[in-house]
Every structure is written in C-alpha cells, then in structure tokens.
Amino acid sequence: MNKLNLVLLEPEIPQNTGNIARTCAATGASLHMIKPFGFKIDDSKLKRAGMDYWYHLDIHYYENLDEFFEKNGECEFYLFTKKASKRHTDISYGDKVFFFFGRESVGLPEELLLKHPEKCVRIPMKAGLRSLNQSNSAAIAAYEFLRQKDFEDLSDDGGLI
Question: What are 88-98's pLDDT values in tens digits?
Fold first, then answer.
C-alpha cells in the first residue's frame, strides 16, 4: 500500500472523485472510497474527469467507516475540516498517512470530528467563505505531504500540457 492515501467518505459528486482519482494517479497515492456514493462507479462524469488515469489507480472500496478502520488498523490519519484549529501545514506527517475528506454537502460527520479532535486539520482560506472544492482540497493536502517528503518518487518533468 502506498505512503499517501486519500480517503473519500461518502463522496457525492462524480467529477470531484474523478479529479481526485487523477491526483492519486499523478502522485502515486492510493484512493480509498467509503460507501454510500452519490453516483455509480461507472458514471460517465466520473470516468471523464479521470478517464485515462483510472487504470493507474490503487483503489480500495469499503462498505462503511467501521470496515475501513478494521482493514487499516491503527493508521496515522487526519480529518480535513474547516472546524479545525490546526493547519494542515502544522503537522509533520509520518511515512504513511490517510487524509479523510467528507461529503461535499456536509463534510465529515460531527461525531468523527469530536472523537478525534487531535486529528482535525484545516486548509487556510478567507473568512466568510463556505469551503474549498473537495478535489482542490485533496490536491493541496497531497502536495503538502509530498513536499514534506521532498517529492520522493516523483519526476520533475511532468506538469501541464
């Protein structure tokens, strides 16, 4: 299993999931998806967003949050939420981490955040705005982890078209 793991809890928007899948493919991260989904995995919008990257993915599916933790044990994880006091850049990440992102409409469940307040992190943004787009947040988080690891295993010749 990869060092960097992006976890989507009950994703609702196929385009966001497709974009996150593309980020995972480009960075070598694993994608973990916890049901229920707000779309079908064969959704054309999902495939269009990450179509030519889908076969590069290391992807894992779970029926629920309990199954995720049963299968991944005592993992190092962080919960991305606007309700956190710590910034995502305040953490010195270990060698293998799981970054959780909640449903686009409501974020991560309140009970999960309350159970693990020390694992809650936020991405700074202007006050008064609701939130960043989920796929943008996942990319920001992924690249902070990779920056801390000096972009190990990534090439410098990639990038924009």
Answer: 999 999 999 99
Query: Token digits for 116?
Result: 């693990």
Cβ 6 vs Cβ 99: under 8 Å? yes
Q: How many domains does the chain have?
A: 1
**Containing structural domain, residue 84:** 4-148
In a domain, 161, yes or no: no
Query: Which residues, 6+ apart, have CB-to-CB distance to 118 below 8 Å?
Result: none
Cα–Cα distance measured from residue 110 to residue 112, given in angstroms and rounded to the nearest whole number: 5
pLDDT on residue 45: 63
How far is residue 159 CA from its own chain's centroid? 20
- Residue 138 covered by a domain: yes
* Residue for token pair 């010749």: 157
DSSP output for 29-79: -EEEEESPPSS-TT-HHHHHHHGGGGGG-EEEEESSHHHHHHHH-S-EEEE
Question: Could you tell me the pTM of the whole model?
Answer: 0.91
Q: Note the pLDDT tens digit of each residue in 140-150.
A: 999 999 999 99
Residue 122 belongs to a domain with what CATH number? 3.40.1280.10
